[in-house]
Amino acid sequence: MNDPAEILTKIPDYEHHEKMNQTSPEEFDHIVQNRRSVRVYTDEKVPEEVVQKVLEWGLLAPNSSNLQCWEFYWVRNPEKKKSLVEALFNQPAARTAQEIIVAVAHPEQWKKTRVQMLKHFEDQGNVPKSARAYYEKLVPIAYSQGFLGIWGVIKKIGITAIGFFKPIPREPTSWSDMKIWAVKSTALACENIMLGFSAYGYDTCPMEGYDSNRIKKILGLPRKTQVVMAISVGKRDKKGVYGPRIRMPKEQFIRVI
Ligand SMILES: Cc1cc2nc3c(=O)[nH]c(=O)nc-3n(C[C@H](O)[C@H](O)[C@H](O)COP(=O)(O)O)c2cc1C
C-alpha cells in the first residue's frame, strides 16, 4: 500500500528532462520595473492575441497541488463591462481601461481538478504510484472540511495533538483557510498576468476597491467563490502614473537569518 504522504518526502524513481531556455535578467528587470499601477489609460486598443497569450501565462503560475482553483473572467460584453466599472466604484483605473480581467479563486474546484489530475495520470501511464495516491487519498483529506466544517474541526484537533510530536501541515482546517489557500495561487497568476502585459508594453492596475457581491452577480459566480482582484489593462496616459514608485527600505522586509 502506497503512503500518500510519500510524494512529499521521497524522490520519485522517474526522470523527466526539461531544458531551461536562456533569458536575460536585464529584460526581466525592465519588465518588473515597467510594471506600475496605471490609473489613466489612452484610447489605444490592446490586441486580442496579447490578452489571450497573457491569460495563458497566468495559467502557468505555480499553484497549490496543481489543483488550479482559479478562474479569470475577461469581461468583453459592453453591458457587463459597464456594470463592472460601476462595481469598481467607477475608479479611473477601471473607467478608462481598455480591458478588465477579474481573477476569481474557487476553493471548491479541487474536487473537479483532482479527478482531472488522476485521469491525466491514467492517460500518461508511467506516473509514480505516490503521485496517484496523493490525489486519490491525501487531497480529499486535506481539502475537505465536511458538513458545517465538522471534518475541519476534527482535523484541527488531530493536527494539534500530532503537532506536539512532529511537524504536520496545520492548514487548511476551515472554510477561511480554504479561501486563503485558493487566493494564494490565484494571486500568483495575477502577477504573471501583470508582468505578461508589461512584457508586451501594456500597463495594468490591480484593483480590490470594489463591491464583491455585485461583481459576483455580474459574473454569475457561485456563493463559495472569492473575487481576488480585477486587473485593468491599457496603455498609460501621460497622467496615468500618479507618482514615482515608493518602497520602504528593503532592510525592513528582507530578513536574512
Ligand atoms: C491586491 C491589490 C489591490 C489594489 N487595489 C487597488 C485599487 O482598487 N485601486 C487602485 O488604484 N490601485 C490599487 N492597487 C494598486 C496599489 O495601490 C499599488 O500596487 C501600490 O501603490 C504600489 O504601486 P505600484 O504598483 O505602481 O508599484 C492594488 C494593488 C493590489 C496588489
TrEMBL record:
Protein's name in the database: Nitroreductase family protein
Task: Supply the InterPro entries for this chain.
Answer: Nitroreductase (IPR029479), Nitroreductase-like (IPR000415)
Keyword Thylakoid among record annotations: no
Tell me which UniProt keywords the record has, alphabetically: Oxidoreductase
**Gene3D superfamilies per record:** NADH Oxidase
- Asked whether the UniProt record includes Oxidoreductase among its keywords, one would answer yes
Picking any one GO molecular function of the record gives: oxidoreductase activity
Q: Which family does it belong to?
A: Belongs to the nitroreductase family.
Q: Which residues form the Nitroreductase domain?
A: 33-119, 178-235
Superkingdom is Bacteria
